[in-house]
Amino acid sequence: xxxxxxxGHSSNIVGVELCQRANVKRLAxxxxxxxxxxxxxxxxLADTLRYEEIRRDAYPDNxxxxxxxxxxxxxxxx
Length: 78
Known about the structure:
Helix content: 25-40%
Structural class: alpha+beta
Largest sheet: 2 strands, parallel
Radius of gyration: 13 Å
């Protein structure tokens, strides 16, 4: 069993699904597991980008969802 289950956080998969339903323009993955190194975060980002691409056809009128992995010092212009 995953020790941190039900901590109130969502997954990258649910994040993509919610953003696509709402026609959101950008999703920033953040609050990463502290023990993950950059390679692991890059892998999660790659998986998330692939999932977004697979699901894109479900919402053909939407803009393409940009997915990024947030990190220390990231500034996002709104």
